[in-house]
Amino acid sequence: MATFLLELVSPEKLLLSRPVEMVTIPAEEGEMGVLPGHSPMIVALRGGVIRVRENGAETEALFIAGGFAEVSPERVTILADEATPLASLSRATAERRLAEAEAALQEATTEPEPKRDAAYARVQAFRTAVTVAQAA
Prior knowledge:
27% of the residues lie in helices and 43% in strands.
């Protein structure tokens, strides 16, 4: 089966760099599947799960809090605000981060619209994190 290079980068480090068959990313407009030969584009990402497929099976699932993806026919580069494998994403930690994000959103009610939107996006991201968390 045909592959393309997937690179996943967080502010701390390069998390993934290898050929894959498919990746599903949480685009702002909804889930987006990418296969080899995809049309070039730059996509804003919301908080959600990146799913990687190799050899006909899902091999990786990572929560990201948001970011951007650059898609080309031969490569997908994901610049994630933060990324955590679902298997190590703690529900307790996700719930704590959600509470922090909700508090920040309350404080942002008098801020300019872009700051409120960013705070709201963070709340949405960590609501997703609580839902998908797999670790204790």
